[in-house]
Amino acid sequence: MSQTKKTQIISAAKQLLAEHGIENIKVNDIVKQAGVAQGTFYLYFRSKSALIPEIAAELIGELLQIQREKLSQVVRTSDKIDIIIDTSFEVSRSYRGLLSLCYSGLAINDELSEWERIYEPYKTFIEEILEAGKAEGEVTQQIATSSAAQMMISLIEETTERVHLHEDETEVPHEKEQLRTFLKRALLHV
Amino acid sequence: MSQTKKTQIISAAKQLLAEHGIENIKVNDIVKQAGVAQGTFYLYFRSKSALIPEIAAELIGELLQIQREKLSQVVRTSDKIDIIIDTSFEVSRSYRGLLSLCYSGLAINDELSEWERIYEPYKTFIEEILEAGKAEGEVTQQIATSSAAQMMISLIEETTERVHLHEDETEVPHEKEQLRTFLKRALLHV
Amino acid sequence: MSQTKKTQIISAAKQLLAEHGIENIKVNDIVKQAGVAQGTFYLYFRSKSALIPEIAAELIGELLQIQREKLSQVVRTSDKIDIIIDTSFEVSRSYRGLLSLCYSGLAINDELSEWERIYEPYKTFIEEILEAGKAEGEVTQQIATSSAAQMMISLIEETTERVHLHEDETEVPHEKEQLRTFLKRALLHV
Amino acid sequence: MSQTKKTQIISAAKQLLAEHGIENIKVNDIVKQAGVAQGTFYLYFRSKSALIPEIAAELIGELLQIQREKLSQVVRTSDKIDIIIDTSFEVSRSYRGLLSLCYSGLAINDELSEWERIYEPYKTFIEEILEAGKAEGEVTQQIATSSAAQMMISLIEETTERVHLHEDETEVPHEKEQLRTFLKRALLHV
DNA sequence: TATGAATGAGTCTTCATTCAT
DNA sequence: GATGAATGAAGACTCATTCAT
C-alpha cells in the first residue's frame, strides 16, 4: 500500500518531466499530480534530485526489458540493430525528452558516476550483442565493443530525442533509416 | 569600449559555467568575476538564460573558425575527419562540459530553435565537407549528408564531453581512435 | 488556527500601512511585524498588492458594522447623518490615512472594479438610508440616491482624511460642523 | 532652448502619468518619450518625486487660468458653479486620473504641505467666488468659505475622476447634473 | 548643457525541505 | 505512514541616480 504512494509519485514525476524540464517542475507539482501530500514525497525520496536517478533507472529498466524480450528469438546482429532502433524510438516517443533531461539533470548535479551505474546494465546488454556479433563474424573486429556500445547508445538516444523534439512525425522514417544505415556501416562487415 | 563590459561578462560566465553547472551559478557570481555591477549584466542580457545562447554561439564560432583554418589545405575527407576530431577534442577540453551545459540550458528553456539557429553554420560546414567527399567518391552515397552531418556532430560532441568529464586523460587516445574508426566506417567507402 | 497567521499578517499590515505608505513598506517588514516567515505571506496572498483589497474590505466591513449598530434605533435622517459623520471620524482617526492609501493602492494597480466591489455594501447601506429619508419626506427628491450616496461617502472620506492628516485636533469640531451643515443642506429639505 | 528639454520632459511625464500610475512609470520611460537622455532628467528635477509637484502645479495653473477667463463676465454664483463644473470635467477628461495620481503621489511621499501650497491659489480663487456670492446674498452664510471651498473642490475633483475612470461617457451628463444640484443645494440659498 | 553607460542597493517572490499533528 | 502548514534562505531582476565625457 505504501508502495502505491511511491509509484504514484514516480508516475506523476515522469509525466511532468516529459512535459516540462527538470528545473521547471516543482515538488509541489509532482505531489499535486500524484495526489499525495507534500511531506509524503520526502518519505520516499531524500530530495528532489534523488528522484531523477530512480526515474532514469526505471526507464532504462523498461527499455532493457522490452529489448531483451524482442531480441530473444533474433539471431542476426543486423536484425537486432533494427529492433533496438525501433524500440528505442517507441520508448523515446512516450517519454519525449525525458532521457536527455535525466542526463542533464544528473550532469548538473555532478552525479556522473550515479548515472553510469544506472546505465551500466544497458551498456552491458549492448556490449554482449556486439560481442556475440563479433563471434558470429557479423560485427567488425576493428572496434572495441565497449566504445562501440557507448557510441551506439549515444547515437540512438541523441537521434530519437532530436527527432521527437521536432514533433514532426513525417521525418521519423527517414531519420530512422539514416540511423540504421549509419550504425550498420560503422559496426557490421560490409 | 562598452563592448568590453559585455565581453568581460561572457568571459566570466564561460569560466564559471565550465566549472559549475548553469543552475549552480548566480548572476551575482558572474558579475563579481567580471568585475562589473549587477545591473550591468542586464544591460547586455535580457535575463540569465539569455546568456547561454550567446556563449554557445561564441563557442561554435570559435570551433568553426579553427577547423576552417586547419582544413584549408586538406584534401582527403579521411584526413579532414581526423582533424575535426582532433580539434574538437582540444576545444572541448578547454571548455570542459560547457557545450553540453549549453545544450541542456537551452533544452530546458524550450529554445530549441534558437539552439538550431546557432548550430546551423557548423552543421552546414560539416555538410559541405561530406558533400565534397561524395563528389570525390570518398564518402558513401548511402547516407544523406544532412543526417550524417548531424550524427557526426552529435557523436563527436558526446564522445569528447564524456571523455573529458571522466578526467582520465589516459583513455583519450584510445577513445579518439575508436571514434575515428567508427566515423570513417560509417561515412567513407571501405 | 491557520487563520491566525493570515490575521496576524493583516493586522501587521494595517498597522504599518497606517504609519507608512503602501510603497514604503516591504513584505519583509510585514512578516517581521506579524512574526511569521517570509513564505507564509505568500501562502495567504498572491502578491504584495493583493493584500490591499483584503485590508480595505475589512476596514469597510468594520465601518459598516459600527454604523449599522449605532443607527439601529435612530429615526431621523438628520440624526443618522450626524452619527455617520461621527463614526467616520472615529474610524478614520484610528486608521489615519489608511483608507486613502487603500484607494491609491488600488487605483495604481488598475483594480478599480475590485475596489468598487468592496465598497458596494457600504454604498448600498448609505443609499438605503437616503431612500428611507426620501420616503419619510426628509430627504430631497431632487437628488438620485445613488449619486448622492457616492458624493456623501466621498465627501466624508475626503474630509476625515484631510483633517486627520493635518494632525491638528483643534480644528476637528469645526470641520465636522461644516461637513454636517454642507451635507444636510445638500440632502435634506430645508 | 534648455527650457525646451524641461518642457519635453513634463509633457512626456503628463502623458505617461495619465496612462499609467505614478509607481508604474520609470524615469527611463519618461526620457524615452521625451526624447532626451537619462541624465538630462536630473538636470531639471532633483528626483523623480520632485516631478509630480511641478506637474500638479501646472495642471492647477491651467485649470485656474481657464476658469478665470470663462468666469470673467459671469455674475451669478449659480452660473459660476455651472461653469466651474463644466470646465473641471473638460480638464479632467484630458488628464484622466492625473489629478488623483498627483494627490496620491504626494500623499505617499508625505509632502502634504507641498501639495497644499500648490492647491493654494485655486482654493483662494474658489473662496473668493463664494465670498462674493455671500456678499451678493446668493451663497448661504451658514458655511465658512474656506471649508466650503475645500469641500467643493474635493467633490468636483472626486466626481470628475470617478466618472472619467469609468470610461462610460453616457453617464457624464447625469452625474454632472447631480453634482450641480448637490453643490447648489449645499451652497446657495434655496 | 547634454549624454547614456554604469551602478548597486533594494525587494519581491520562489520552492525545497521540515515537523507537529 | 501520511499530512500540509510553515519555514527562510536564496537569487533574479529593477530602476533611481551618478558621472566621465
TrEMBL record, chains A, B, C, D:
<dbReference type="InterPro" id="IPR009057">
    <property type="entry name" value="Homeodomain-like_sf"/>
</dbReference>
<dbReference type="InterPro" id="IPR036271">
    <property type="entry name" value="Tet_transcr_reg_TetR-rel_C_sf"/>
</dbReference>
<dbReference type="InterPro" id="IPR041603">
    <property type="entry name" value="YvdT_C"/>
</dbReference>
<feature type="DNA-binding region" description="H-T-H motif">
    <location>
        <begin position="26"/>
        <end position="45"/>
    </location>
</feature>
<keyword id="KW-0678">Repressor</keyword>
<feature type="domain" description="HTH tetR-type">
    <location>
        <begin position="3"/>
        <end position="63"/>
    </location>
</feature>
<dbReference type="InterPro" id="IPR001647">
    <property type="entry name" value="HTH_TetR"/>
</dbReference>
<dbReference type="GO" id="GO:0003677">
    <property type="term" value="F:DNA binding"/>
</dbReference>
<protein>
    <submittedName>
        <fullName>TetR family transcriptional regulator</fullName>
    </submittedName>
</protein>
<keyword id="KW-0238">DNA-binding</keyword>
<dbReference type="Pfam" id="PF17934">
    <property type="entry name" value="TetR_C_26"/>
</dbReference>
<dbReference type="InterPro" id="IPR050624">
    <property type="entry name" value="HTH-type_Tx_Regulator"/>
</dbReference>
<dbReference type="Pfam" id="PF00440">
    <property type="entry name" value="TetR_N"/>
</dbReference>
